[in-house]
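For reference, the entry.
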Amino acid sequence: MSWTALTQSDIENRLTDGEMVAVTTAAVKTGQTAAAIIAAAIASTTGEIRGYVAASSKNILGEAGTIPGELEGAALAMIRRYLYTRLPGTSKLLDENRRKETEDAINLLRDVAAGKFAIV
C-alpha cells in the first residue's frame, strides 16, 4: 500500500455529525477552530504512528506527514481517542467498543514496531 496523509475529511467520515460537533466545539479557546483541533489530532497521531513504524529497521518511512495505508484504520481509532479525551466530559463518547478498537490499534502498532506486521 502507499503512504498517505490523513485529512479532516477522513476524520469526518469516521465520526457522526454530532460527535464531530461535540469534540470540536466544547471548551474551544478564543480563535481556536474545528480545523485546528482536527489538525492537531492528525499531527499528533501521525507522529506517534511514524514512531512505531520507525522502531523497526525493516521499515522505511514515507514522506513526512504521511502514514502507511495499512495503518489508516489504526490511526483513525487513535485520533478518535485523542479527540474524545481532549476535554473532561467528552471521554464519555469513548464507549467500550471504541476503547477496544483503540487497544487493537495500539497492539497492531506494537506489532509493526516489533517487525511482526509488515509495511508494504
Remarks:
- The CA atoms of residues 25 and 98 lie 21 Å apart.
- Helices lie at 8-14, 17-25, 34-54, 72-84, 96-113.
